[in-house]
Amino acid sequence: MTFRRMADRRPVETRVERDDGVVFEMRGAGGGADLPHDLVHALVEQQLRVPDGIWGCVADGVVWQSMRHVSGRQPPHAAERSARLKRERAAEIQQAEGLADLVRRLSVGAEVLPGEVAGAGHSSEQLRAAAAELARAGRRWAALDPGETWVVEWASRRGSRR
């Protein structure tokens, strides 16, 4: 995944290159100096080893509405596979959304209820370590000039890179 820092509040541009050679582009929330929502997901899901979150699903063939096919031959029945994975992993996807939001709030010192931490499925120490990493990532992102990129490699379940 290659996230391109845009000026001001313009949406972030992300290029997604899957292992199968299929390439997508997407525009996502965030922009300017704010850490993009999709990059937050990538970093939190990596840090906490969430295999079936947003980016694990993309690596496995899910295509979100925000993704536009650019190149590469999609496998047969790709749309059906994407829809099936979204249904099968709905609970995991929802949990990944909540987890990314929780870690983001922890990273900026926003109020977090004790029950949120207890119900997150990770220890308080793991969540706080992920929040510290996310805070560092936020500073790194803010230091990028418009047009610069941040590349994230996604590790597949088989140990290869996605």
Describe the model:
With 162 residues, this protein is α+β, with helices and mostly antiparallel strands. It has one domain (2-151). It has 6 helices and 5 strands, in the order βββααβααααβ. The chain has a 5-stranded antiparallel sheet with strand order 4-3-2-1-5. A hairpin with a 5-residue loop joins strand 2 and strand 3 (23-28). Helix 1 packs across helix 4 and helix 1 crosses helix 6. Residues 158-162 have low confidence and may be disordered.
Given helix and strand content, the structural type is alpha+beta
Strand content: 5-15%
| Largest sheet features | 5 strands, antiparallel
Residue-averaged pLDDT, rounded? 90
How would you describe the shape?
globular
Physical arrangement of strands within the biggest beta sheet: 4-3-2-1-5
Task: List segments where confidence is low: pLDDT < 50 over at least 5 consecutive residues.
Answer: 158-162
In angstroms, what is the radius of gyration? 16 Å
Number of strands: 5
What's the helix count?
A: 6
Percent of residues in helices = 40-55%
Q: List SSEs in N-to-C order.
A: EEEHHEHHHHE
* Domain tally: 1
N-end to C-end Cα span: 9 Å
Produce a short descriptive summary.
The protein is α+β, with helices and mostly antiparallel strands and 162 residues long. The chain has helices at 37-47, 54-59, 78-88, 90-107, 114-118, 124-143; strands spanning 2-4, 12-17, 23-28, 67-71, 149-151.
